[in-house]
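Let's practice the habit of predicting before peeking. Look at the sequence and jot down your guess about where helices and strands might fall. Then scroll down.
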Amino acid sequence: MAGGFNVWWRNKSNFVLRCIFCLARFPWIMLCAPFTRARREFVKQLSTLLGWAYPRPRAIVSKCPIASVWPPDGACRVLEPVQADGNVSLIELLCINGLVRKKQPLRLFEIGTFDGRTSLNMIANAPEGAKLWTLDLPPQKINSTVYSLNEGEKSFVNKAGSGARFQDSSCGERIIQLYADSAKYNPGTLISTMDLVFVDGSHTYNYVLSDTRLAMKLLRPGGLLIWHDYDGVWPDVTNALNKLFSEDPRMVHMRSIEGTTLVFAVIDSNNGALLNEHDPFPFAQGLVKL
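Done guessing? Here is the structure:
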C-alpha cells in the first residue's frame, strides 16, 4: 500500500514540478521565439493545441463556371476516382482532366506528387506521346526545407513512396518522377518547355509564391498554370494567390473555378495572363497560338 502511494505521489510531484518549470520558462520562450525556427514552430504548435484558428481570408480572385473549363465533347478519362486525404476532390479531378483535354498539352509538370492520383489522371487525358514530370519533397528532407512547412502537411511528405497510384499503370510509363525541395529545384533544360504546370505542393505562403515562380519559369508562351487549395482549409494559399491576383500584373486575369478550390491562368508570350472577359479559355477559340 505504501509502495503504491509513493509511486502515485512521485508521479504527481513530477507533474507539478514540470508545470512549475514550464511556467518559469514560458516568458523566455515567448521573448526568444522570433529568433529561431524551432521556437517559432513550437509556438505555432502550442497555439494550435490551445485552440488558435487562423481567420479565413476573403477570396478575391474572380470566378468562372465549371462549364467554361470543360472540353467541347464533354469526355475525359477518370482513373483512381476514390479520394484519399490529401487528394483533390472528385469534382476537382474532373475539372483538371477537363482542362487537360481542352488544352491538349504535350509536356506537363506537377509540383507536389503525393500519391500520384492527379499525375495519373493528367497524363491519361493528355495526347498520345505526352510526358509529365512530377516533383516531390523526399521525406529525409522534411526538416531542412528552405521555408517552414505546416505541421498539418508533414504527414503528406512522410509516406512510403511518391506516386503509388501510377506505379502499376501503363500511363505511368510517361511520368518522370523527380525528388527535391521545390524552392531549391533547378529546372535546367526544362525552362520554358511546359504546356501545363499544376501547383499543389506545400500550402505555406512562401512556398505557394516560390512554386508559382518556378511554374512561370517552366511554362512556355500560351502555357496553362493551375493551382489547388484556394479558398479552402489552407489560408496561406488563399493569401498568396490573393497577393498575386491583386499585385502582379501578369496575374490579373486569374480565374477561380466555382465549386472548387482550383485557380488557373493562361500565360502569354510576355509572361502575362491571357483571358478573354467572356471566354476564360482563349486558346479554345484559337486566340493563343501554341
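How did you do? The beta strands are 63-64, 107-111, 131-136, 175-179, 194-199, 219-227, 255-257, 263-267, 273-274.
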